[in-house]
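Input record (Table S2, row 117):
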Amino acid sequence: MSYDPSNVFARILRREIPAQVLHEDEHCLAFRDAAPQAPVHFLVIPKRAIRTLADAAGADAALLGHLMLTAAAVARQQGLADGAFRVVVNNGGGAGQTVFHLHLHVLAGRPLAWPPG
Ligand code: AMP
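Output record (adenosine monophosphate complex):
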């Protein structure tokens, strides 16, 4: 399936709709999730139009690493008492993906059970 540029994260990147931005650089944007599932819940998205993790290619390797490092850096900035956080990528509708622009969820600030639902 091809990338749909009308998805909500593409619109946030174009500043067509607002977001609570925590971090921005030339490659990615981190902002608070609008329906947080934990006291800390933010998303890290690439500026590049990538639909799902499975659509990422070898050429995206450095970008994917940058997203992970950004997730950790922004989590640190949230001042988590125990330093614990979880990073989740839902890949595909069957895994819970609802916005088809690649994103990392970062959740923290409460006990996080395993396995996730
Ligand atoms: P997923 O289900 O993995 O695709 O995650 C999509 C996430 O985007 C959900 O956690 C939503 O709460 C979040 N979300 C949807 N629209 C917005 C928005 N306008 N601003 C911030 N987060 C959003």
